[in-house]
Design a protein that fits this description.
Helices cover about 25% and strands about 25% of the residues. By secondary structure, it is of the alpha+beta class. The protein folds into two domains: about 50 residues, no CATH class; about 150 residues, tt1808, chain A. Helix 3 packs across helix 5. The N and C termini lie far apart (about 80 Å).
């Protein structure tokens, strides 16, 4: 008999995972029994990215346009870090063990040198690390309940700053705590706060660059 904490139906399982579409939940290994090793094994075999939540493998919501937005942001953070060597920026293919049995794959993240995984760790293993900054770029298959759950997990683990990027609305919700946030729009500047002091990204320029669909036209002489 299932305990009170165990899902008894597929609907219960999906609701517990944040009301996500069933197509994102892997059937084998059976939900509730998956391990960190399964995350690595499946990626090596299929090239697909899965997060590990309560023993279930949940595919990272894919998105071509979302990945471009995340890449441009990660590049901007990387350029900043060339001047201020505070840590390292990682992209959307960097799984991290946020807690025992919990693997997350943010769309971008910043890890300070104080938190960076030991250099002598086993190559290819998923490191146990809590980033200072996490970036999630929202896609159509993300649900509000899923993102609320992620937000709570990030701050519970010790993440200091979370950015939720909505490409459709061209906005960024900046969280400094689960219940403390600011919504920025196109006319605003995204700054790194206490985590990345001095970082400033013009949101309009960032989205304009990410949404380009052709080469830049040469400037006319004047």
């Amino acid at each position: 008999m299932a305990t009170a904490s165990e899902p008894t139906t597929i609907a219960d399982l999906l609701d517990g995972l944040g009301g996500i579409p069933a197509r994102r939940v892997l059937r084998r290994p059976r939900p509730g029994t998956a391990t960190v090793a399964d995350v690595t094994r499946l990626h090596d075999r299929t090239g697909r990215h899965f997060e590990l939540i309560d023993g279930s493998l949940v595919e990272k919501a894919p998105g071509f346009d979302e990945s471009i937005v995340a890449l441009h942001l990660a590049v901007a953070i990387g350029e900043y870090l060339k001047v201020r060597d505070l840590g390292a920026a990682v992209g959307s293919s960097a799984p991290m063990r946020l807690a025992p049995g919990r693997v997350v794959i943010p769309d971008a993240a910043f890890i300070s040198w104080e938190r960076f995984p030991a250099r002598n760790r086993r190559r290819g293993a998923i490191p146990a690390v809590v980033p200072d900054l996490v970036v999630e770029v929202l896609s159509k298959s993300n649900t509000p309940k899923e993102m609320k759950r992620k937000l709570e997990e990030y701050f519970r683990a010790g993440v200091r700053l979370v950015w939720y990027v909505d490409p459709a609305k061209r906005t960024v919700r900046v969280y400094t705590a689960v219940d403390q946030s600011t919504l920025l729009s196109e006319g605003d500047t995204l700054d790194g706060g206490d985590v990345l002091p001095g970082l400033a990204i013009a949101i309009r320029d960032w989205f304009a660059e990410a949404e380009r669909n052709g080469p830049r036209l040469p400037k006319r002489g004047g």
